[in-house]
Design goal:
Length: 177
């Protein structure tokens, strides 16, 4: 017990210094990852406007522009409840309200099942879809995506986050370009 009294006064300041040194680098890496992800989900954009809060929504969005400064679409970050907690999704959408790409930013689902929501084969199903995307357990057609086997809750959570972004676009941004 006495040794703990000697270790704590030494370890506490060391941990504080380490945190002070690493926190800015972690924030910088996070910002860089977000920019790279934005370009991944909205490839037509080369620059993005300031992040704005979605009115009445649970997320944010930014306007994507091409090299000439013309609006090409939007990037949304929305959250829904999955099997293992919050599912945070970045959705890119063009000026017609169709998905250009999605990427999970936060996903804590079951390994081997829900975590397959990170796979391109699942994510690519959303491309070209418009609002009110449905989840089908068997085979998807039209404006549906096929659920991950054994991870329907995760599939529905990702779809709900994407639908929230598309619905916000349709209700608040469509025709505002």
């Amino acid at each position: 017990l006495e040794i703990l009294f000697l270790i704590c006064p030494v370890a506490t300041p060391l941990l504080a210094v380490t945190n002070k040194v690493t926190a800015p680098k972690i924030a910088e890496l996070s910002a860089q990852t977000e920019v790279e992800t934005r370009q991944k989900v909205l490839p037509a954009a080369t620059q993005f406007g300031e992040t704005q809060e979605m009115k009445g929504g649970s997320g944010t969005y930014a306007v994507g522009k091409d090299a000439s400064g013309n609006e090409v679409g939007y990037v949304f970050v929305t959250v829904s409840k999955g099997y293992g907690g919050d599912v945070k999704i970045m959705t890119g959408g063009d000026k017609n309200g169709a998905v250009t790409g999605i990427s999970p930013l936060e996903l804590n689902e079951t390994a081997g099942l829900g975590m397959k929501a990170q796979n391109a084969s699942f994510l690519d199903q959303f491309k070209g879809k418009v609002k009110d995307i449905a989840v089908n357990k068997n085979s998807a057609s039209g404006n549906e995506i096929q659920a991950l086997t054994g991870a329907t809750i995760t599939s529905k959570a990702v779809t709900a986050a994407v639908n929230e972004a598309l619905s916000y676009y349709d209700s608040n941004l469509k025709g505002a370009e």
